[in-house]
Every structure is written in structure tokens, then in C-alpha cells.
Write a structure and sequence with these properties.
CATH architecture of the largest domain: Alpha-Beta Barrel
Shape: globular
Largest sheet: 9 strands, antiparallel
Structural class: alpha+beta
CATH superfamily of the largest domain: Regulatory factor, effector binding domain
Number of strands: 13
Oligomer: single chain
CATH topology of the largest domain: Multidrug-efflux Transporter 1 Regulator Bmrr, Chain A
Length: 318
């Protein structure tokens, strides 16, 4: 039998990663569903017998633990951002048939009950947990947001925000799992690989835009588990392979913040403006769906090295 070369092994590993990515995408998009082992194994293309062990080996979490963690992280965002929804309604939105089961899991995960979160939710968007650690009502899509500098009560970064319907966005992506610091180091290389892959298939055009989806909230998710999709818009359905995945941002109503910032560290302040300044005064609340940051220019070609970014937040009336 011919032995596998290093290239063969790399391609095999990337195929496994691609299949697990598809399962993770399905889980995030269908949290209110049953998410049975049969369904997820079928999506992965592995048999039920092998799928669970493969998932645990790659993700470093059991399938049940992963699903519960994603549901709990989504739950705390819904509880804090959507005060008009009852705890029972939040539980049902996340696939729980009864609120009691949801409440038990929530308290086990966060060390405090869902009702305590709301009772302690304060004007400055913080609640104190039993161990004294603050949980911030802040976006899950940036790093060091809590250290964003202020001048008095005025944010250092402000943007123009519009609310409008967008058409669906087709994109290809590379998935990064790890800390924000690790992502910062890997970002340019991942984007270059994505661009080269698209260019080789004649997918690049003047309308192609890179963007990033931050799937997890660093306030609630261990740094090593943070998932980020580095994406590139495409105008057509494509067949993906190896480490490249594909994703569709559904059409819907979005708040779109247009920002001009001086350096990457200012992205955090842009997110803080959307959540801390604009949203509480907008008459809207976050809706379910992907939240992402689109990069509108190459700062290296700008005379002042400015970064033009658009932040997309799905919204619905408060």
C-alpha cells in the first residue's frame, strides 16, 4: 500500500475540519431545533458511530457540551439584549421544551440564575456574578472592548448608522479557533489564502468584500474556544474544498454602522458605540442572525492609513 505524503495528510485533515465547520454552522443556525445525533452526523458525512468521537477530538469538547455552551452563550445575549422577552420565551427560542431544564443548565453554566441576571442588570450594562466577575452587555465581536478609552461620557469613535434591508450575502470562509491575540497574528495570512483560492477560480471582482464573523462572546467563552470566520463575499454558489467553507448571510433588516478609524485597536470602540450609544437610543433591539464586520478599503493605500469598516447588526423593533 502506498504511504500517505505530508500533503495527503494535510488535505485529509482539512477535509475533517471542513466537515466539522459545517456541523458548527448548522448548530448555530438551528439552536431552536432538536439537533439530534442522527442529523448532525449526516451533515458531517461521518457515521453516527464515529462522528461523536471525531467531533470531540477536533473541537476538544463533547458534542452535548458544545451545543449546551453555544445555547447558554446565546441565552445570556438574548436575556440582556431583549428585556421584553420572558425567560420561558428565551428557553423556547433555544430548543428547550420547558423553562425548568433551561434554568438548571443556565445556573450550572454561569453560577447564577437567569432571573438574577435580569434583576442585577444595571444601567451601565453590567451584572455581578457570585464570584464578583462582571458580565458586560457588550458585543461579542471584538477584543479588549472593556478597556476602550473614553473622554468623560463621550466615545472616542462615532459612526453614521443606518437601518435598512439587505439582500442575502454569499461568502466563502476560513475558520479560526483560538484567542483574539492568536487571530491577530493569523488574520493576514488567512485572508491571503482566501483571496488566492478565490482568484484561482475567477471569483474575485470589484464587488468582492472581506469581512469577519465573530461567533462567540469573549466575556463568556474561553479564549481558546473563540470561533471567527474570515470571509470573502462571492456572487455565486461555489463548490468548496479542503479548509474552505461557504456560508450565506440571510436577507433581513440590519443596522449598519459606517466607521472611519485610525488603527485596528479602534475597531473595539466602534463596536462599543453601536452597542453602548446607538442601540439604546434607536428603538431597535438585536435580532437573531450573524453579526459581522466588513472591511471597505485597504488602509495601506489610504494616504492617512485610515480603516473604513461597516458593522452589521441584525435588528428588530424594541
Amino acid at each position: 500500500m502506498k504511504s500517505m505524503t505530508g500533503s495527503d495528510k494535510s488535505m485529509t485533515y482539512m477535509e475533517y475540519i471542513s466537515r466539522i465547520n459545517r456541523v458548527q454552522d448548522y448548530i448555530e443556525a438551528n439552536l431552536r431545533e432538536e439537533l439530534s445525533l442522527d442529523t448532525l452526523a449526516e451533515i458531517s458525512g461521518f457515521s453516527k458511530f464515529h462522528f461523536h468521537r471525531i467531533f470531540s477530538g477536533i473541537v476538544k469538547e463533547t458534542l452535548l457540551s458544545y451545543i449546551n455552551r453555544i445555547r447558554m452563550e446565546r441565552a445570556i445575549s438574548l436575556l440582556l439584549h431583549n428585556p421584553s422577552q420572558s425567560i420561558t420565551e428565551v428557553a423556547m427560542m433555544l430548543g428547550f421544551s420547558e423553562s425548568a431544564a433551561f434554568s438548571r443548565l443556565f445556573k450550572k453554566h454561569f453560577g447564577m440564575s437567569a432571573s438574577e441576571v435580569r434583576q442585577k442588570y444595571s444601567k451601565n450594562c453590567q451584572v455581578d456574578s457570585k464570584n464578583g466577575k462582571a458580565i458586560h452587555l457588550l458585543p461579542s465581536y471584538n477584543e479588549d472592548i472593556t478597556n476602550t478609552p473614553r473622554k468623560g461620557d463621550v466615545m472616542l469613535v462615532k459612526g453614521n448608522v443606518e437601518v435598512r434591508m439587505i439582500e442575502e450575502i454569499k461568502a466563502i470562509y476560513l475558520r479560526h479557533v483560538g484567542s483574539n491575540e492568536e487571530l491577530a497574528v493569523a488574520f493576514q495570512g488567512m485572508m491571503s489564502r482566501l483571496m488566492n483560492w478565490a482568484n484561482a477560480r475567477d471569483l474575485l471582482n470589484n464587488d468582492s468584500k472581506p469581512f469577519a464573523i465573530y461567533h462567540d462572546n469573549p466575556e463568556f467563552t474561553a479564549q481558546g474556544n473563540l470561533k471567527t470566520s474570515i470571509c470573502l463575499t462571492v456572487s455565486q454558489n461555489v463548490d468548496v474544498d479542503s479548509e474552505i467553507g461557504k456560508i450565506v448571510i440571510p436577507s433581513g433588516k440590519y443596522a449598519i454602522g459606517h466607521f472611519e478609524v485610525d488603527e485596528p485597536s479602534d475597531h473595539a470602540a466602534a463596536w462599543n458605540y453601536i452597542y453602548g450609544e446607538w442601540l439604546p437610543n434607536s428603538g431597535f433591539q438585536p435580532d437573531e442572525g450573524y453579526v459581522f464586520e466588513m472591511y471597505m478599503n485597504d488602509p495601506m493605500t489610504h494616504p492617512e492609513k485610515k480603516h473604513f469598516i461597516d458593522i452589521y447588526l441584525p435588528v428588530k423593533p424594541l
